[in-house]
Amino acid sequence: MDLLIREVQLDDAEAIVSILNPIIEAGVYTAFDTQFTVEAEREYILQFPKRGVFHVAVCRQNQKIVGFQSMEPFATYTHAFDHVGVLGTYVELSYRRQGISTSLFQAT
Hints:
single chain, alpha+beta, globular
């Protein structure tokens, strides 16, 4: 699959939620048990830490966001954990096993 990996943009919130919520609903590949709103995702993107990395994978053929990955600092209240991060990688269920996660990990 020909992918463009780029930094997240505020306008990506709806696409991200449309990937994440079906995974939550299916009860697979995540510990999340409550679906997200577009508004909550926009706020998350707006407040994302400067030291974090947040990428989306865009299928070049149809310009659809098919996956995303975020990595953010574990703690901001101390420097003792500066080397520790929280990483999440999600791929739309119908696009799994096509190298999207691998491309996201390479970019991150």
